[in-house]
Amino acid sequence: MNPLIKDLMARKQKLETVIGKAEAELKKLPEGKLWVSPVRHTVQYYQVVKLSGVVTRKYLNQKNEKCRNGLAQREYLTRLLKFAKAELKDIDRILEAKHLLRADEIYSHLHPNKKALVIPMLMDDEEFAKWWESRPFEAYDKWPEELKYSTKRGELVRTKSEAMIADAYYDLGIPYRYECPVRLSDGKVRHPDFTLLHKSERKVIYHEHFGMLDDARYRTDNVQKLDLYRRNGIYVGKNLILTFEVAGSPLNIRSFKQNMKEMFGV
């Protein structure tokens, strides 16, 4: 569904709910209007009612607090209904349009053979994700003999856990690149296990999986890597995901998948 239409329909539903509640509440409130009159260091309240062309005004003392509050609520709900109904009318008019395209959807509606000839200025989330995934990159070329676990996308990764992680991203529709290089500000190049795209935010997030934490040298190397990342603006809580496992405590892929669903809103 067009995201704009989805947002409009959600807003329409919210407005209809609010209008229904407001109209029902208005029936229970006192008639008339609230007149506020500042007097010296205090404020006086009056109930103003017009009957048969005659306007009457009644002073509301402390004992009339319920009436005072009810009249204020009536004024608020009356104005709320006026603007909510006007907004709802505008939404209905838009939803009735036969052709409703956002500007960033124009590229996706081009003929496939024409897309390759165009440099798009705006793309919807799905088109942007396809473009992002299709960009070529030089994969990590060290120890190619370790690439022996196949993923659902048909690529090879180094461990069973990485294969499960890749498949989780694939199942959730989260665009990813395996061991894609990232050049840091000091010129050094690192290859995070996964480079991810948060589609709706157009944000790149990195994921490092530490699967050999029992090994002291492995821990030291990766602590240094994380420190290097941190000095280059890559850290947990901003744009870095970390997962771990040790002997006897493997990666809980079900829990991981649920966490990623919440994080990426899929």
Note down, in words, how this protein is organized.
The protein is of the alpha+beta class. It has 2 domains: 3-95, no CATH class; 136-264, Trna Endonuclease, Chain: A, domain 1 (3-Layer(aba) Sandwich), CATH 3.40.1350. It is 41% helix and 20% strand. It has 7 helices and 11 strands. Strands 6-9-10-11 form a 4-stranded mixed sheet. Helix 5 runs parallel beside helix 7 (253-264). The two termini are 15 Å apart. The mean pLDDT is 90.
Helix percentage range = 40-55%
Helices, by number, come to: 7
What is the total domain count? 2
Distance between the amino and carboxyl termini: 15 Å
Strand content: 15-25%
Q: The CATH topology of the largest domain, please?
A: Trna Endonuclease, Chain: A, domain 1
What does the main sheet amount to?
A: 4 strands, mixed
List keywords for this structure.
Trna Endonuclease, Chain: A, domain 1, alpha+beta, 7 helices, 266 residues
What is the topological layout?
Elements: H1 3-26, E1 33-39, E2 42-51, E3 54-60, H2 65-95, H3 112-115, H4 125-134, E4 149-150, E5 156-157, H5 160-172, E6 176-178, E7 182-183, E8 189-190, E9 194-198, E10 203-210, H6 216-231, E11 240-244, H7 253-264
Parallel strand pairs: 10-11
Antiparallel strand pairs: 1-2, 2-3, 4-5, 6-9, 7-8, 9-10
Helix pairs in contact: 1-2, 5-7
The gist of it:
This protein is α+β, with helices and mostly antiparallel strands and 266 residues long.
